[in-house]
Design goal:
This protein has a single domain, classed as Rossmann fold. The protein is built from seven helices and ten strands. The protein has helices spanning about 15-30, 60-75, 110-135, 155-175, 195-200, 210-225, 235-245, and strands at about 10, 30-35, 45, 50-55, 80, 90-95, 95, 140-145, 180-185, 235. About 45% of the residues are buried.
Length: about 260
């Protein structure tokens, strides 16, 4: 992997799962990384070059304060990875699995959570990061999304929120292009997060990805001097690996999923 010396990255929701892996991979490529989230601990995190900022992305003042913290400490933002999300809570209520219930049986709280802690949070963080990127005519915004944007997966709120994420990416790219800033959506595959590994005995993990693999995809994109050719598009992490020639941490290259696979 190419080094990202001198680059400053912010990873929202970067304390667990995919976000943690992205932060770790960027730090390994020598970027200075700030991670935000409700469970983040302020100050230097376990990994060298990673700084935690406690922040609830549903609270505008906390988000603004977090980005002001980055500005004071690092002076700029080169890479923003919007990974924070909501709506995955309360998968089981009163002994019933709620994630796949039809929309008329879903609580409105799930819609609200996916948009307030997900889409809106991405939008707000992107606004704040763009104010650092646009004057310097450089930067990369990565919105973590998924195939639910293009196909019914699990529930309506999930699909609509991911579709909104992809549309937001495309429209941001239009407005950012004249200023040399790139915006992309990035789809992981089956990622071996903490929650997934709790159910590992029931899953086929043969084509799965480590959380760091997604981070390697972000790092490869950030190091590409011609990244603008991808702006406004949806990228699949495993396809990015094939294009840029990197592997997962176990040396394997996961097969890219398609719409037919999910």
């Amino acid at each position: 992997m190419k080094h990202l010396d001198g680059k400053v990255a912010v990873v929202t929701g970067g304390t667990f799962g995919v976000g943690r892996g992205i932060a770790s991979a960027l730090a390994q490529c020598r970027a200075r990384v700030f991670v935000t989230g409700r469970s983040a601990h302020d100050g230097v995190a376990n990994e060298e070059q990673v700084t935690g900022i406690r922040c609830d992305h549903r609270v505008d003042t906390e988000v603004t304060a977090a980005f002001e913290h980055v500005a004071r400490e690092a002076g700029k933002i080169d890479i923003l990875v919007n990974n924070v999300w909501g709506g995955y809570e309360r998968m089981v209520e009163d002994g019933t699995f709620t994630w796949t219930k039809p929309f008329w049986e879903q609580g409105l709280w799930r819609w609200d959570a996916m948009f307030s802690a997900g889409v809106r949070a991405h939008y707000h963080a992107s606004q704040l990061a763009a104010k650092s990127m646009v004057p310097r005519q450089s930067g990369l915004i990565v919105n973590i999304s998924f195939w639910a944007a293009q196909k019914h997966i699990a529930n309506v709120a999930y699909g609509v929120s991911k579709a909104a994420t992809d549309k937001m990416t495309a429209d941001m790219a239009v407005e950012l292009r004249p200023h040399g800033v790139t915006a992309v959506s990035l789809y992981p595959g089956l990622v071996r997060t903490e929650k997934v590994m709790e159910a590992a005995s029931w899953l086929d993990l043969t084509n799965s990805e480590s959380p760091e693999f997604i981070g390697r995809a972000v790092a490869a994109l950030a190091a590409d001097p011609d990244i603008m050719r991808h702006t406004g598009t949806v990228l699949v992490a495993a396809c990015v690996a094939m294009e840029y020639g990197f592997t997962d941490i176990d040396g394997k290259t996961p097969r890219p999923l398609t719409l037919a696979d999910v």
